[in-house]
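Team,

Forwarding the record for the chain on the shared tracking sheet. I've put the sequence and predicted structure together so nobody has to dig through attachments.
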Amino acid sequence: MRPPLQPTLAPNIAPLNLVPPGPLLRAAHVTLEYASERGVVRATDDVSFDVYRGDRFVLLGPSGCGKSTLLKAIGGFIQPRAGSISLTGKPITGPGPDRIVVFQEFDQLPPWKTVRQNVMFPMLASGVARGDADVRARHWLGKVGLARFADAYPHTLSGGMKARVAIARALAMQPAVLLMDEPFAALDALTRRSMQEELQSLWDEIGFTMLFVTHSIEEALVVGNRILLLSPHPGRVRAELNSHQFSLASAGSHEFQAATQRIHALLFGGAETALDAPQPAQVLP
């Protein structure tokens, strides 16, 4: 993996959190359960993976495989039934500003606050001085192309623009890892492609660490540089794949289509492909 780019900073903008060499985030033998009307449901079973600084790490699997539940556990909202999750070597025991989540529902933006106020809100809540929060909000709104909409209200924005606000708000918090739970699933196909391009451009410039959840094989290939495949319910690791060679520019190529078919076979194939034992990291052709 290439070394991550250094952040491009505006005045008074602190660098994104730096961590020592080694995994930034580690999930070790994580089993997650939750209560439902039918009793206790096992969402994931014995899931392990490492995320390194600068990774675009994707959790990919079918609906119900526990990938969003796993993201919530990394966010500190759910405690594992077994195993452990750690960030920079320290156990995750609850939510914290070092892990910010971007969800697919952008109605999470308070409608009575302007775009700039929405971006500032979590910073102010975590103790950032108002002046610094304002500088950081304007900086990140500029990065996502919304500088001239800073004083607009959410109801005047398109779905793609609301997605940009959510990303700006998350990055303004300068988290160690950005958690994205199917953030573009509610968007139309053209807007979703545009947001994937913009996310890639932001990562190229800033080099932040991202954990991205999706059930789309194509999106996983264009967004991620590493992909963890989770089996249908309960989620178990099927394989880990290196996919840094793919991008939106390669979508539609023979190699891209072959990788898509191979991943589909690993996720849903018969006994010869859908292995119970997780496979070591592989480089897709």
